[in-house]
Amino acid sequence: MVKIRLFRAIANAFGKNKTGFVTLIKTCYQGNFVSFAAMQTPIVQAKGLVKRFGSLEVLKGIDFEAYPAELVAIVGPSGAGKTTLLQILGTLEQADQGSLSLMGAQLNRMSDKALSAFRNKYIGFVFQFHHLLPEFTALENMLIPAFIGGMKKKEAECRAAELLEYLGLSDRAHHKPSELSGGEQQRIAVARALMNKPSLVLADEPSGNLDSANATSLHQLFFDLRKTFGQTFIIVTHNTALAALSDRTVRLADGRVVVQ
Ligand SMILES: Nc1ncnc2c1ncn2[C@@H]1O[C@H](COP(=O)(O)OP(=O)(O)O)[C@@H](O)[C@H]1O
Ligand SMILES: [Mg+2]
After folding, report:
1. Has residue 17 got a pLDDT over 90?
2. How many angstroms separate the CA atoms of 151 and 139, rounded?
3. For residue 15, is it within any domain?
4. 56, 57, 128, 257: which to mutate for ligand 1, most atoms within 8 A of CB?
5. What integer best gives the mean pLDDT of the chain?
6. How many other CB atoms are there within 10 angstroms of residue 4's CB atom?
7. What is the pLDDT of residue 125?
8. SS3 state of residue 193
9. Which of 93, 106, 142, 221 could make a disulfide contact with 87, Cβ separation 3.0–4.6 Å?
10. Nearest C-alpha to atom 6 of ligand 1 is from which residue?
11. CB-CB contact of 53 with 95 (8 Å)
């Protein structure tokens, strides 16, 4: 049965496009046998994104797609528009032109309130600096997005305990960010991003502030999470090792996707 589905999916993907086919094979290879119907539907689909700040056109018509359980690296020189693109994909910024759909929902049509709820539920963010609140413990920092999303205290605490255990950080739960190492702070920031079980994780230079050992272990964590939970990761990075390991690298230069 599985073989027939696999065969059919390969045939379909082949007929469609090369990226879909490569994603399919890579995802199967990862052992994540995600439903093929879902796999061929992009979780992120952006078309013709244009963004201007005053007279500066920062994004000049970007098409971008990402599929379930895909790990995409966005690379390019400083000022290319990577952060702006990620913020638009994460609904933190709005494009001046173009369309964006996430998990099949057309975002242009959503009110601000609906958009905030959507973001809280479906998207996790990791930034270069951990942005943990200094007066709260690691655990409390993790609980915040869950409470905002309306999760009950008991359920949120269970979820946090589960994540802390997975990350090997259970013994750091009651420490404040200043009492954690840089690597631990960033892993807690990842845990916070995962609290609401997002389908999509967006990370902006997440290892940019870490030494190489901590950077490698953070990158490994992304791959482990993707394999275990099947989230899609879109990661802006200058780290060539991470980009080389990703399923697909999208290069931006001067507000455009550069054809590889
Ligand atoms: N809020 C803003 N207001 C004005 N200019 C901005 C703003 N955000 C980014 N820019 C400009 O847009 C360009 C792209 O920035 P950014 O997306 O941060 O690039 P990258 O992340 O690739 O370094 C830069 O020239 C930057 O100065
Ligand atoms: Mg940036």
Report:
1. no
2. 15
3. no
4. 56
5. 86
6. 8
7. 94
8. helix
9. 93
10. 53
11. no
Residues 6+ apart with CB under 8 A from 95: 49, 50, 51, 59, 88
Whether 5 maps to a domain, the answer reads: no
Question: What CATH number has the domain bearing residue 56?
Answer: 3.40.50.300
75 pLDDT higher than 50: yes
Q: Which atom of ligand 1 lies nearest, measured to the CA of 54? A: 4
Residue whose entry in the numeric block shows the structure tokens 């739960």: 173
Range of the domain at 178: 41-258
How large is the average pLDDT for residues 79-89? Answer: 97
Ligand 1, pocket residues at CB < 6 Å: 53, 56, 58, 76, 78-84
pLDDT tens-digit readout, 31-67: 444 444 455 789 999 999 999 999 999 999 999 999 9
Q: What distance in angstroms lies between residue 169's CA and the mean position of ligand 1's atoms?
A: 35
181 lies in some domain? yes
The pairing of beta strand 44-53 with beta strand 123-126 = unpaired
In ligand 1, the atom with minimum distance to the C-alpha of 252 is 22
| Cα–Cα dist 127/136, whole Å | 18
Length of the chain: 260
Instruction: Say if residues 45 and 100 touch (Cβ distance below 8 Å).
Output: yes
Q: How many folded domains does the chain comprise?
A: 1
Q: What distance in Å separates the CA atoms of residue 160 and residue 193, rounded to the nearest whole number?
A: 11
Please check whether residue 96 lies inside any domain of the structure. yes
